[in-house]
Specification:
The protein has helices at residues 7-33, 40-59, 61-71, 78-95, 99-121, 129-146, 153-157, 166-188, 204-218, 254-273, 290-304, 308-321, 323-326, 331-338, 355-371, 379-391, 417-436, 440-445, 450-459, 469-477, 484-498; strands spanning 227-229, 235-239, 242-247. The protein is an all-alpha fold. It binds zinc ion (ZN).
């Protein structure tokens, strides 16, 4: 085989593309953490240049030829064959979208972002509506360009959870509607636990120090990561050994920074556990899907850090940090307070149960927009009606309703379900870990998370994109997605908190 047609040529090309991508991530992180305001224009151009270069390298005709010649090469090892096969799948999908289409989408979403910000400020959906109409029209065109089997929405899901179908989502949310929503109603008929102590004054520096202690305990290593202040919490990867998170704090909201830190560190541990060094820029070195990524953050945030065992290990330390606020709050009351269930308008502030109503509503709306069964103009009404139907509350204006999320302005349709699926995967993984790891609860209540992280590393992180989510769940839990594990978790935990 000619050297330019070898696996080495493939590896080297993907490595260059990854260099460009990770360099872009540094610029974007800096933009959100340190960059002065007036640097925005040049920074936008620099990031666009890197991303265009990466796109050109990836979609160039010579790369298609290289992948074609490698895909049936008997000399490849199994791992190499998987990398090439998955890259070819990505390549074919990208090639289906003509450059002119991609450019048009970029232009309209850039304009839509400004319109969304302004519409949100004025609490007026009509200012965003014309742009959203253009975006929905483009997304529908995209489903035709990409192709699909049963439902056009599935063409878009592929970006976030490959292989996920509308039938599966409907089945899963069918159970959520039948079992979770009535459970929430039952909970709401009971007295709500006090959580006023979470809103006392918690100085930022001390919150930061405690959050750092908690994420170190999980296994997040500051030799290969760091945490910085930013308006939005996120996790970003610059390469092997450099996975960072950002945090934001509110001195009158203890739960916000702490749980966001644990959530983002959960994403970080996944990134750090990927075999990125060995498969740099290649599918086996990459995260499986957004939904699986979310399962990792939610496992730590909800299944671990919102459990009674976790606070058995850590509450005394927290109390010692804030004796004036928590000195007289018992462990039991603290646990009940951080697990208070309450319908609210804003998704990112929702508790771990009502959260799924927020997602279900967004899913119903975006699926209907893509299949054409509702118009963009109907969105505020449908949104508000659904909030009333599922959560018993009606937004008083569009900013606490359908304008709250940025996803649609970015053209991200099919993203929302990954949040719920992440929680459902997490519950299933946690149930399997409880069966497979001896003394799971004792480990948690003594703050020893190394065996749990080790399990995640070997069962999930080290696999990269080798399997689909469904396949990986079968391998590590013995079955495909079964929302029953999440329901069992919810019934047991909240049954005991609320005395049901
Ligand atoms: Zn997340």
């Amino acid at each position: 085989m000619k050297p330019e047609m070898s696996y080495e040529a493939y590896r080297s090309k993907l490595s260059k593309i990854a260099d460009l991508g990770f360099a872009g991530a540094v610029l974007s992180w800096d933009q959100q953490v340190f960059m002065p305001k007036l640097g925005a224009k040049a920074r936008g151009r620099q990031m666009a240049t890197l991303s265009t270069l990466g796109h050109e390298l990836f979609t160039g005709a010579d790369f298609g030829g290289l992948l074609d010649s490698l895909v049936n090469d008997p000399a490849l090892t199994e791992a190499q064959r998987i990398n090439v096969k998955l890259t070819r799948k990505d390549f074919e999908r990208k090639k289906k979208l003509p450059d002119a289409f991609v450019e048009k989408m970029a232009l309209i979403t850039a304009e839509a972002f400004g319109a969304w910000v302004e519409a949100r400020r004025q609490k007026d959906f009509s200012l965003f509506r014309p742009l959203l109409e253009q975006i929905v029209a483009l997304k529908r065109e995209e489903t035709r360009l990409l192709g699909f089997n049963a439902h056009p929405y599935e063409a878009l899901l592929e970006d976030y959870e490959p292989g996920l179908t509308v039938a599966k989502i409907d089945e899963v949310f069918g159970r959520v509607r039948e079992e979770l929503f009535p459970l929430i109603q039952k909970i709401l008929s009971r007295p709500r636990p006090d959580h006023s102590f979470l809103a006392k004054h918690y100085p930022k520096g001390k919150q930061w120090a405690f959050s750092e202690k908690m994420i170190r305990q999980m296994g997040y290593d500051f030799d290969s990561g760091r945490a910085d202040d930013a308006p939005h919490p996120f996790c970003t990867t610059f390469g092997p050994g450099d996975v960072r998170i950002t945090l934001r704090s509110d001195e009158h909201e203890l739960a916000m920074m702490l749980f966001a830190a644990i959530h983002e560190a959960g994403h970080g541990l996944y990134e750090l556990g990927l075999p990125l060094e060995e498969h740099y820029g290649m599918p086996l070195g990459s995260a499986l899907s957004l939904a699986f990524h979310e399962s990792q953050s939610r496992f730590w945030e909800n299944n671990i850090a919102r459990s009674f065992s976790y606070w058995k290990a850590n509450y005394r330390t927290l109390q010692a940090e804030f004796p004036e606020n928590l000195g007289s709050v018992s462990l039991e009351s603290f646990y009940r307070g951080i697990n208070r269930i309450e319908p609210s308008f804003v998704r990112v502030e929702a508790d771990e149960l009502t959260y799924h109503a927020h997602i279900y509503i967004r899913y119903l709306i975006e699926k209907a927009l893509i299949e054409g069964s509702i118009e963009v103009a109907d969105v505020p009404r449908v949104w508000n009606d659904r909030y009333e139907e599922f959560l018993g509350i009606r937004p008083s204006h569009d900013s606490e309703g359908c304008l709250q999320d940025i996803h649609w302005a970015y053209g991200s349709f099919g993203y929302f379900p990954t949040y719920s699926f992440g929680s459902f995967y997490a519950a299933q993984l946690a149930a399997a870990m409880k069966r497979q790891i001896p003394g799971y609860d004792d480990l948690t209540s003594s703050g020893n998370f190394a065996p749990l992280l080790q399990w995640l590393r070997s069962q999930v992180h080290s696999k990269g994109r080798e399997f689909t989510s469904e396949e990986l769940l079968i391998r590590c839990t013995g079955k495909g997605l079964d929302v029953g594990d999440f329901m069992d978790y919810a019934r047991t935990k909240y049954g005991s908190i609320y005395g049901l």
